[in-house]
Amino acid sequence: MAIQRTFSIIKPDATQRNLTGAINAKFEAAGLRIVAQKRIKLTKEQAGVFYAVHKERPFYDELCDFMASAPIVVQVLEGEDAIAKNREVMGATNPAEAAEGTIRKEFALSIGENSVHGSDGEDTAKEEIAYFFSGLELVG
Ligand code: ATP
Ligand code: MG
């Protein structure tokens, strides 16, 4: 497996409960390195662009409101098989179905307020990283 980069968000429910350090400890323990990171606050419109793939889904409006409700931490994780590894550490979308020890099992409040986002493939990882970071901000 090759070294990959993937895009990660610590969502509003987690930043509001002071969980950024606990969440990033899990990524680092799994061998993922944080090679870029910043704390920002999205507008609802920016959240809508980011999650545009879900715009026909019934939860889209609620999801955009949630993602714009408080600051988020956007970051790039690098490591061996990073895209799949990140999603493994995150756990299933619905915390009720997430495996023991995963971030969503330990920290998520609900299927919507589920603490973290992670890219789901190589193309989305590239697009999502480019949406939030310039090349100069990817420092390794
Ligand atoms: P993410 O894209 O945030 O990493 P995911 O890939 O596990 O999550 P998706 O199916 O892409 O899951 O859904 C995107 C996000 O939309 C979820 O993480 C969650 O915040 C929200 N969401 C998904 N399904 C529901 C639902 N049934 N009700 C409310 N919110 C939902
Ligand atoms: Mg997704």
Automatic annotation (TrEMBL):
It comes from Rhodovulum iodosum. Its EC number is 2.7.4.6. Its cofactor is Mg(2+). Major role in the synthesis of nucleoside triphosphates other than ATP. The ATP gamma phosphate is transferred to the NDP beta phosphate via a ping-pong mechanism, using a phosphorylated active-site intermediate. SMART domains: NDK. It catalyses: a ribonucleoside 5'-diphosphate + ATP = a ribonucleoside 5'-triphosphate + ADP; a 2'-deoxyribonucleoside 5'-diphosphate + ATP = a 2'-deoxyribonucleoside 5'-triphosphate + ADP. ATP binds at K11, F59, R87, T93, R104, N114. Keywords: ATP-binding, Cytoplasm, Kinase, Magnesium, Metal-binding, Nucleotide metabolism, Nucleotide-binding, Phosphoprotein, Transferase. One of its GO terms (molecular function) is kinase activity. Its main location: cytoplasm. InterPro entries: NDK-like_dom, NDK-like_dom_sf, Nucleoside_diP_kinase, Nucleoside_diP_kinase_AS. Signal peptide: none annotated. Pfam families: NDK. This is Nucleoside diphosphate kinase.
